[in-house]
Amino acid sequence: MAIFARIVPTRAGCVMIVETLTSFLDATSLGWASLLGLAAIIFVGLPHGAFDGAVAMALGWAGKPWMMLAFIMGYVTMAALVVIFWLAFPDLALLAFLGISLVHFGLGDAIGGTATEQAIQTIAHGGMVIVGISLFHKAEVDIIYSYLTGGDTTIIWVCVEQAPFVIGLALCIYLAMAIARPALRPRLFEIACLGFIFYMLPPLAGFAFYFCMVHTPRHLFRIWRQLSRQNFSPRSMLIMAAGFSCASWLAGGIALWMSPPSMSADAHLLRVVFIGLAALTVPHMILVDGLFRRHHAPIQGTTDTMPITDIPFKSDSGQDNKPQDNKPQGHNNA
């Protein structure tokens, strides 16, 4: 635990972050709803990835201090490479970020089924978040995308505007699946509700609602329940999460403090938040959607509400999952 205690920022560091944020709030032209959304993304949504340290423990990387240190160094290195890649190829980086975010959000919202059913759910859920928000508020989102790419967004919109055809087809198939499988109906209804919310709220506020009120709680519930079953100490998980969160906030505060004079406050604030989010999403997705799901098959493609039956189903790993006689038969793992 000493490793994580040392990365919590000092009081002076926290004061620097607060002062920097205050100066940006004075200079920004973003509306209050967008600012509240950004604050929620930073202080509520971002910490859900801070439990990646606990996930690393579950994967056996905390047996010795050097193993956890190697995990942290690898995580930070991968995040740094994402930032470097973004600065060198912003258009390609933004497209990649939108694509992996669609998959990551979709996987988090999908429930059990065959590989094809998982893919349909992933496209529908993730597509509503990424493409839905983009097209519902194209003018506002275009400004955000231009800040993130530093210029022309034509290639971004060429790709985004083709996506509704695929997402629409996925939703039609999803509807047919939900007619046959009642367990899918609540999640399909969720897509409709989120679509309405995304349409009504400004884009940053709409994304923050999903990120903080849907994605983060769902992710934390799955991770927390799985790790608790492996007898991991809640105190240890919270200490690690606090350490990673504070380190991320400190890095963001430093990036804001280093704002170039030629860049507007809005542009720099949004670049720090979303490029930083992209940098953390790549290792987070590899860890959670790749390694952790593979090592903890019961989490994959299930839902908190779908009851276990005696009928086997296929998870997204392609393996049959059947209820065991020595396990409770109440509810699936999320």
From TrEMBL:
Pfam families per UniProt: BCD
Task of the protein: Catalyzes the cleavage of beta-carotene at its central double bond (15,15') to yield two molecules of all-trans-retinal.
Topology in the lipid bilayer: Multi-pass membrane protein
Molecular function as annotated in GO: beta-carotene 15,15'-dioxygenase activity; carotenoid dioxygenase activity; iron ion binding
HAMAP family reported in the protein's UniProt record: Beta_carotene_diox
Protein name according to UniProt: Probable beta-carotene 15,15'-dioxygenase
Residue segments, region Disordered: 303-334
Residues that hold Fe cation according to the record: 48, 104, 215, 219
Lineage, highest ranks first: Bacteria, Pseudomonadati, Pseudomonadota, Alphaproteobacteria, Candidatus Puniceispirillales
Transmembrane segments: 32-59, 66-87, 93-112, 119-137, 165-184, 196-216, 237-257, 269-288
Source taxon at top rank: Bacteria
